[in-house]
Amino acid sequence: MPSNLYLIERNDVWSYDEYDSAVVVADTEEEAKATHPDQDKVWDGDKGVWYSYYGLATPTRYDELSSSWVPPSSVKATYLGEAESSRLSGEVICASFNAG
After folding, report:
1. Per-residue pLDDT reduced to its tens digit, 46-63
2. Half-sphere exposure (CA, 13 Å, Cβ side) for 56?
3. Of 35, 78, 96, 100, which cross-links 7 as Cys (Cβ 3.0–4.6 Å)?
């Protein structure tokens, strides 16, 4: 089954040094909302924090405040269409970061 493309956007007000949106590959809308635009980060809903793998097999604590992105509950996901078969779920195609 091919994955889908989603536009993910924050539902809050963003500022400098924060992402405001991205196009991601995901199987479902919920999976898209749980994708960080930096791609290397994974949401832990139990603890309410983003973690980063930094290329390791197990995640390491990254950022309790998640200052550059928001929790999945604050993300709007819009279906754009099917992704190419070579694209993997969780992949970030492009992201918008507002450098300060």
Report:
1. 878 787 766 555 555 554
2. 11
3. 78
